[in-house]
Protein backbone atom coordinates (compact mmCIF):
# COMPACT_ATOMS: atom_id res chain seq x y z
CA UNK A 1 0.00 0.00 0.00
CA UNK A 2 1.23 3.47 -0.88
CA UNK A 3 1.78 5.92 1.90
CA UNK A 4 0.85 9.55 1.30
CA UNK A 5 2.65 12.12 3.37
CA UNK A 6 1.10 15.53 4.04
CA UNK A 7 3.59 17.50 1.93
CA UNK A 8 5.36 15.02 -0.33
CA UNK A 9 4.53 11.76 -1.93
CA UNK A 10 6.99 8.95 -2.43
CA UNK A 11 5.22 5.76 -3.58
CA UNK A 12 8.42 3.75 -3.41
CA UNK A 13 9.45 4.25 0.17
CA UNK A 14 7.12 3.39 3.04
CA UNK A 15 9.48 4.99 5.55
CA UNK A 16 9.82 8.74 6.10
CA UNK A 17 12.21 10.51 3.76
CA UNK A 18 13.85 13.94 3.71
CA UNK A 19 11.55 14.66 0.75
CA UNK A 20 8.57 14.62 3.13
CA UNK A 21 9.27 18.31 3.77
CA UNK A 22 8.90 19.29 0.10
CA UNK A 23 5.58 20.52 -1.24
CA UNK A 24 3.70 18.02 -3.39
CA UNK A 25 2.68 19.25 -6.82
CA UNK A 26 -1.11 19.46 -6.77
CA UNK A 27 -1.30 20.36 -10.48
CA UNK A 28 -0.47 16.88 -11.74
CA UNK A 29 -2.83 13.96 -11.59
CA UNK A 30 -0.25 11.24 -11.82
CA UNK A 31 -1.64 7.77 -11.24
CA UNK A 32 0.08 4.62 -10.19
CA UNK A 33 -0.40 0.96 -10.98
CA UNK A 34 1.75 -2.07 -10.36
CA UNK A 35 2.45 -4.80 -12.84
CA UNK A 36 -0.70 -6.93 -12.67
CA UNK A 37 -1.31 -10.44 -14.02
CA UNK A 38 -5.02 -11.14 -14.53
CA UNK A 39 -6.56 -14.61 -14.35
CA UNK A 40 -9.54 -15.88 -16.36
CA UNK A 41 -11.81 -15.43 -13.32
CA UNK A 42 -10.87 -11.72 -13.10
CA UNK A 43 -8.60 -11.95 -10.07
CA UNK A 44 -5.17 -10.43 -10.32
CA UNK A 45 -1.80 -10.65 -8.65
CA UNK A 46 1.37 -8.61 -8.83
CA UNK A 47 3.51 -9.93 -11.70
CA UNK A 48 6.81 -9.02 -10.11
CA UNK A 49 8.18 -6.76 -7.43
CA UNK A 50 7.94 -3.10 -8.37
CA UNK A 51 11.33 -1.88 -9.57
CA UNK A 52 10.36 1.61 -10.69
CA UNK A 53 10.31 4.97 -9.03
CA UNK A 54 8.84 8.37 -9.69
CA UNK A 55 8.60 11.77 -8.09
CA UNK A 56 6.63 14.95 -8.31
CA UNK A 57 7.55 17.98 -6.26
CA UNK A 58 7.05 21.71 -6.24
CA UNK A 59 9.38 24.19 -4.60
CA UNK A 60 8.18 27.78 -5.00
CA UNK A 61 7.56 28.13 -8.75
CA UNK A 62 9.77 25.20 -9.71
CA UNK A 63 7.96 21.96 -10.64
CA UNK A 64 9.89 18.71 -10.88
CA UNK A 65 8.61 15.37 -12.21
CA UNK A 66 10.61 12.20 -12.72
CA UNK A 67 10.09 8.61 -13.83
CA UNK A 68 12.73 5.96 -13.17
CA UNK A 69 12.33 2.56 -14.83
CA UNK A 70 14.37 0.17 -12.70
CA UNK A 71 15.57 -3.24 -13.83
CA UNK A 72 17.15 -6.16 -11.99
CA UNK A 73 15.82 -4.75 -8.72
CA UNK A 74 14.73 -1.41 -7.33
CA UNK A 75 17.99 -0.37 -5.64
CA UNK A 76 19.11 2.03 -8.36
CA UNK A 77 15.70 3.57 -9.07
CA UNK A 78 15.19 4.24 -5.33
CA UNK A 79 18.67 5.76 -5.08
CA UNK A 80 18.08 8.02 -8.09
CA UNK A 81 14.61 9.05 -6.90
CA UNK A 82 16.03 10.36 -3.62
CA UNK A 83 19.34 11.78 -4.80
CA UNK A 84 18.16 13.51 -7.97
CA UNK A 85 15.49 15.35 -6.02
CA UNK A 86 18.13 16.61 -3.60
CA UNK A 87 20.46 17.67 -6.39
CA UNK A 88 17.78 19.70 -8.13
CA UNK A 89 15.63 21.13 -5.36
CA UNK A 90 18.04 22.07 -2.60
CA UNK A 91 18.98 25.51 -3.88
CA UNK A 92 20.54 24.57 -7.21
CA UNK A 93 17.66 25.93 -9.30
CA UNK A 94 16.45 29.50 -8.94
CA UNK A 95 13.90 31.56 -10.84
CA UNK A 96 16.74 33.75 -12.13
CA UNK A 97 18.35 30.85 -14.06
CA UNK A 98 18.34 31.10 -17.84
CA UNK A 99 18.21 28.19 -20.31
CA UNK A 100 21.97 27.58 -20.30
CA UNK A 101 22.07 27.59 -16.48
CA UNK A 102 19.17 25.12 -16.23
CA UNK A 103 20.81 22.82 -18.76
CA UNK A 104 24.05 22.93 -16.78
CA UNK A 105 22.28 22.21 -13.47
CA UNK A 106 20.41 19.24 -15.00
CA UNK A 107 23.58 17.77 -16.51
CA UNK A 108 25.49 18.23 -13.26
CA UNK A 109 22.69 16.65 -11.23
CA UNK A 110 22.63 13.52 -13.41
CA UNK A 111 26.43 13.32 -13.24
CA UNK A 112 26.59 13.76 -9.45
CA UNK A 113 23.89 11.15 -8.86
CA UNK A 114 25.61 8.64 -11.13
CA UNK A 115 28.98 9.17 -9.42
CA UNK A 116 27.33 8.95 -5.99
CA UNK A 117 25.76 5.62 -6.88
CA UNK A 118 29.05 4.17 -8.07
CA UNK A 119 30.69 5.43 -4.88
CA UNK A 120 27.98 3.62 -2.89
CA UNK A 121 28.92 0.30 -4.54
CA UNK A 122 32.65 1.02 -4.77
CA UNK A 123 33.66 -1.62 -2.22
CA UNK A 124 31.57 -4.27 -3.96
CA UNK A 125 33.12 -3.37 -7.32
CA UNK A 126 36.59 -3.76 -5.80
CA UNK A 127 35.65 -7.17 -4.39
CA UNK A 128 34.32 -8.21 -7.82
CA UNK A 129 37.54 -7.11 -9.53
CA UNK A 130 39.60 -9.02 -6.98
CA UNK A 131 37.56 -12.20 -7.45
CA UNK A 132 37.71 -11.89 -11.24
CA UNK A 133 41.49 -11.54 -11.10
CA UNK A 134 41.70 -14.92 -9.37
CA UNK A 135 39.91 -16.73 -12.21
CA UNK A 136 41.75 -18.03 -15.28
CA UNK A 137 41.30 -15.75 -18.29
CA UNK A 138 39.44 -16.92 -21.36
CA UNK A 139 37.73 -19.88 -19.69
CA UNK A 140 33.90 -19.72 -19.51
CA UNK A 141 32.65 -19.92 -15.94
CA UNK A 142 30.66 -23.05 -16.74
CA UNK A 143 33.90 -24.84 -17.74
CA UNK A 144 36.00 -23.93 -14.71
CA UNK A 145 37.34 -26.82 -12.59
CA UNK A 146 35.69 -27.64 -9.25
CA UNK A 147 38.44 -25.81 -7.31
CA UNK A 148 36.95 -22.48 -8.52
CA UNK A 149 33.35 -23.19 -7.41
CA UNK A 150 33.56 -21.36 -4.06
CA UNK A 151 35.14 -18.39 -5.83
CA UNK A 152 32.35 -18.42 -8.43
CA UNK A 153 29.72 -18.52 -5.68
CA UNK A 154 31.26 -15.45 -4.04
CA UNK A 155 31.46 -13.73 -7.42
CA UNK A 156 27.80 -14.48 -8.19
CA UNK A 157 26.75 -13.11 -4.81
CA UNK A 158 28.66 -9.86 -5.36
CA UNK A 159 27.30 -9.53 -8.90
CA UNK A 160 23.74 -9.89 -7.58
CA UNK A 161 24.41 -7.13 -5.04
CA UNK A 162 25.58 -4.67 -7.68
CA UNK A 163 23.26 -5.74 -10.51
CA UNK A 164 20.55 -3.47 -11.75
CA UNK A 165 20.06 -0.05 -13.12
CA UNK A 166 17.44 2.43 -14.14
CA UNK A 167 16.44 4.70 -16.94
CA UNK A 168 15.55 8.22 -15.91
CA UNK A 169 13.44 10.95 -17.40
CA UNK A 170 12.90 14.26 -15.67
CA UNK A 171 10.58 17.10 -16.58
CA UNK A 172 11.26 20.45 -15.00
CA UNK A 173 9.04 23.50 -15.28
CA UNK A 174 10.84 26.71 -14.37
CA UNK A 175 9.86 30.24 -15.42
CA UNK A 176 7.00 28.81 -17.49
CA UNK A 177 9.48 26.78 -19.58
CA UNK A 178 9.58 23.00 -19.83
CA UNK A 179 12.95 21.27 -19.68
CA UNK A 180 13.36 17.54 -20.28
CA UNK A 181 16.39 15.46 -19.32
CA UNK A 182 16.79 11.72 -19.71
CA UNK A 183 19.32 9.00 -19.28
Please tell me about this protein's structure.
It comes from Scyliorhinus torazame. Pfam families: PP2C. This is PPM-type phosphatase domain-containing protein. The longest helix has 22 residues. It contains four helices and seven strands. The protein has a domain of 123 residues: PPM-type phosphatase domain (Phosphatase 2c, domain 1), CATH 3.60.40. The chain is 34% helix and 22% strand.
Please summarize what this structure is.
With 183 residues, this protein is of the alpha+beta class. It contains four helices and seven strands, in the order E-E-E-E-E-H-H-H-H-E-E.
* Helix and strand sequence: EEEEEHHHHEE
CATH superfamily of the domain at 53-136 and 144-182: PPM-type phosphatase domain
CATH class of the domain at 53-136 and 144-182: Alpha Beta
CATH structural architecture of the domain at 53-136 and 144-182? 4-Layer Sandwich
How many DSSP E strands? 7
Label the overall shape: flat
Straight-line N-to-C gap: 29 Å
The name of the CATH topology of the domain at 53-136 and 144-182 is Phosphatase 2c, domain 1
Strand order of the largest sheet: 1-4-5-6-7
Into which percent range does the helicity of residues fall?
Answer: 25-40%
**pLDDT averaged over residues:** 80
Structural class estimated from helices and strands: alpha+beta
Q: Could you describe the largest sheet, including whether it forms a barrel? A: 5 strands, antiparallel
Q: Classify the beta-strand content into a percent band.
A: 15-25%
Helical region count? Answer: 4
* Multimerization state: single chain
Extract low-pLDDT stretches: 1-14, 29-33
Q: Measured on Cα atoms, how large is the radius of gyration?
A: 21 Å
Domain PPM-type phosphatase: 37-183
Protein name: PPM-type phosphatase domain-containing protein
InterPro entries: PPM-type-like_dom_sf, PPM-type_phosphatase-like_dom
